[in-house]
Specification:
Blueprint lengths: L2 H16 L5 H31 L2 H18 L2 H15 L6 H28 L2
Amino acid sequence: MEVSTREGEIRARLVDIGGDEPGPAERALLARLIRSFAGKVPGKVDRLAELLRGGDPEAVRDHAHGLKGSAANIGADTLSGIFAEVEQSARDGVIPDADMTLGRICAEQALVLGLLDELAREMESSP
């Protein structure tokens, strides 16, 4: 999926949250929401890495479920989809290969975090 598609998905979600023409208060809220997600997700992905290597399907399932929801809430649909795959595998009692899974997650996370940083700066600098 292209960067522009991901950006479109995230922008669509931000419109859902803040409206078509957000005012200063809504833009500030959106920027805080973006910054909060961007600040928390790397640590949560690190925890998922530990859980994937630890071998507890229930813990992996629960943690992946939370990450899936967080990513969906911000409009990062592709990232959310990867977490959904991890969650479903763990639900089925199978822990996905940690290195392959984390490679996919980290690549997508880097792309999403870059987009989110741009969008947060846009929200913070708009009049």
